[in-house]
Specification:
Strand 4 and strand 5 form a beta hairpin. Helices cover 41% and strands 23% of the residues. The strands form three sheets. Strands 1-8-3-6 form a four-stranded antiparallel sheet. A four-stranded antiparallel sheet has the order 2-7-4-5. It has a three-stranded antiparallel sheet with strand order 9-11-10. Helix 3 packs across helix 4, helix 5 packs across helix 6 and helix 6 packs across helix 7. It is of the alpha+beta class and 229 residues long. The chain is built from eight helices and eleven strands. This is Crp/Fnr family transcriptional regulator. Pfam families: cNMP_binding, HTH_Crp_2. It comes from Salininema proteolyticum. Keywords: DNA-binding, Transcription, Transcription regulation.
């Protein structure tokens, strides 16, 4: 008997796309539901990586923290992305922290269950390798951005990446304050504020409290150095 889509909470998770619906339902049944309020940590850098976190709703900031306490935001993850797969594979401690940017509903799959799936299913292994590749490409691109882009260019590229996560909206709204945006673009809050002010004066965006409304995504793409499509 097949599984109705409403009973298949992992249907949109790329890592489990190669499995049939009944198998995904079995995974969901052994996973532990978790709920995080805005500002709560899902996990922190240096702790044992004991579970795979599957985001069902909401958004999560993935960041590293310097000895000085300064943060560098690496990625904003949204449903149906997964977090923590690197630590599960190599048994090492978490390489970054994760904080809920809004209320988050998630499922946590233990390392033992995760590894059993990887060993039992070639589809899972393929998905894990694709996930690892995506992480490496993202980190390589971020390193290149700090060499080849000035700060306004990095701010523009950060906004484009975040807007692309909301493809269904004609005018995407970025729900990050300017401190968080500075962490992600790798600059000071004052410098990022100046870049946002310039973009706003050109009509590319509008700020509304802690939200940024994107008005001209094409202009931001050009400023970020993306080739025209």
């Amino acid at each position: 008997m097949g599984v109705h889509p409403s009973d298949d909470p992992l249907a949109g998770v790329a890592m489990f796309a190669g499995l049939d619906a009944d198998s995904r339902k079995q995974i969901a049944e052994v996973a532990v539901p978790r709920r995080y309020l805005r500002g709560r940590l899902l996990f922190f850098e240096g702790e044992p990586g004991e579970s795979l976190i599957m985001i069902r709703s909401g958004s999560v900031s993935v960041f590293r923290t310097a000895a000085t306490g300064e943060r560098a935001m690496l990625h904003v993850a949204r449903a149906p992305e997964v977090l923590g797969e690197v630590s599960l594979l190599d048994g090492s401690r978490r390489s970054a922290s994760a904080e809920a940017l809004e209320e988050v509903e998630a499922l946590a799959l233990s390392r033992t269950s995760f590894l059993e799936l990887v060993h039992a299913s070639p589809h899972m292994l393929d998905a894990v390798l694709r996930s690892m590749g995506a992480i490496v490409r993202r980190l390589t691109e971020q390193s290149s951005d700090h060499v080849f882009l000035d700060l306004p260019g990095r701010v523009a590229k950060t906004l484009v990446r975040l807007a692309d996560q909301k493809r269904s909206s004609q005018f995407p709204t970025i729900e990050l304050n300017q401190t968080q945006l500075a962490e992600m673009a790798g600059g000071s809050r004052q410098s990022v504020n100046q870049a946002i002010g310039i973009f706003s004066s050109r009509g590319w965006l509008r700020t509304e409290g802690r939200k940024i409304l994107i008005l001209d995504l094409a202009a931001l793409r050009k400023r970020a150095g993306f080739s025209e499509q």
